[in-house]
Amino acid sequence: MPNDRDLLIIAASETDSNLYYATRFPAPDAFIFLRVKGEKILLMSDLEVDRAKATATVDTVLAYSEYEERVKRHGVSQPNAIDVLDTLLKERGVTRVLVPENFGFEHARRLQALGYDLSTKREPFFEERAIKTPAEVESIESAQRAVESAVQKVIDLLREASIKDGFIVHDGEPVTSERIKKIINVGLMEQDCVSQHTIIAGGVQACDPHNEGTGPLRAHEAIVMDIFPRHSHSRYFADMSRTVLKGTARPGLKRLYDAVLAAQEEAIASVRDGADGKAIHLQVNRRFEDAGFKTGLMHGRMQGFFHGTGHGVGIDIHEAPRISRTGSRLQTGHVVTVEPGLYYPEIGATRIEDMVLVTDDGCRNLTQFPKVLEIG
After folding, report:
1. Domain range enclosing 63
2. DSSP for residue 371
């Protein structure tokens, strides 16, 4: 297990969540992290060494240039990162290290050629990442409040909008997916959050769960909104989906929405310490099947409920655990989404998503935004 093994990560913490988790030090360029006999060590460039000493949550910060000079004194004129790391590993008496499964192939090849024993561990590399501290939960909730504030601006616009020739119109202009995304993304930026790939998909577009949506939005058709920003300071994500429409829902779409909402509420009620994520997911599937909502390939495309019920949220938007057909055992301190959905091009689409904190005897819903389909 990582807790009692010497660890090595070489990556850029801006993009490698394990490295950021281990160091709490965001950097755009790759650096070297070691944990040797419990001591957390950084080998940093001169550009970052002072900032790392001031802010990184590690025990020791060493200057890369100092170790590079040692290698040069031994006759290597242009040492690479592995030459430099080799000197540090020998100094610390390390011969075996555990590395993440995404560890660079060339780094691994060179280390093995020098005689080091490397082993890997599949994700989650740091299993403790899944159990959120109160401070981490607070960071997630802060991002979630920003999401809710931004989405409220959209709801306000839709309420003020009118319907003309079957389309939603506001201030004389068609309301488009792009316009809604701009409102949300700017609203999030105003609250120190950054969102990418925001989904505002209407009508048939929403039947592809990852279609981000384009073009004018029609009245009386479901609009799936899925927003998952990262807070710029804490670097923790939030995640929320709502399905709304401007106008009046057709009976088939209203029945679809009600089925998803009921399945979500039942799934949330099943979340607690020790619950089986696979069992919760199968429960959602059964509820849909019993209501007559079948899943499978129909008319050349997947329809019904064909994604997982939920996933962990933290430094990554998708992380352990899972509420899905692969499943995970839920534990107190997990933060997971609960997001069932149904997708039928001839009827429409619905996805409703909240984030919940798993507790000993249930869960606490971190999402406060209302769930309402029709906006008059």
Report:
1. 2-129
2. -
125 and 135 in a common domain = no
User: Looking at the structure, do residues 332 and 278 belong to the same domain, yes or no?
Assistant: yes
H or E segment and range at residue 181: helix 177-189
Q: Last residue of some domain: 99, 129, 159?
A: 129
- Express as a percent the part of the chain with pLDDT over 70: 99
Q: What are phi and psi of 123, to 5 degrees?
A: -65, 145
Q: Does residue 244 sit in the same domain as residue 263?
A: yes
Same domain, 356 and 300: yes
Among 79, 103, 129, identify where a domain stops.
129
Q: Are residues 240 and 152 in the same domain?
A: yes
What's the token pair of residue 245? Answer: 């429409």
CATH of the domain at 123: 3.40.350.10
Domain tally, the chain: 2
3-class SS of residue 94: coil
**Closest among 346, 364, 315 to 221, alpha carbons compared:** 346
Q: Which two tokens stand for residue 39?
A: 């001591």
Asked if residue 94 and residue 143 are part of one domain, the reply reads: no
Q: 271's torsion region: left (phi>0), alpha (psi -120 to 50) or beta?
A: beta
Q: How many degrees, rounded to 5, is the angle at CA 296 between CA 223 and CA 277?
A: 80
Q: What is the pLDDT of residues 52-104, one digit of tens each?
A: 999 999 999 999 999 999 999 988 889 999 999 999 999 999 999 999 999 99
- Is 1's pLDDT higher than 50? no
Interhelix angle 81-92/64-73, nearest 10 degrees: 90
pLDDT in tens, 184-223: 999 999 999 999 999 999 999 999 999 999 999 999 999 9
More confident residue, 249 or 299: 249
- Per-residue pLDDT reduced to its tens digit, 137-161: 999 999 999 999 999 999 999 999 9
Q: How many CB atoms lie within 10 A of CB 363?
A: 25
Supply the DSSP string of 263-313, one letter for each residue: HHHHHHHH--TT-BHHHHHHHHHHHHHHTT---EEETTEEEB--S-SEEE-
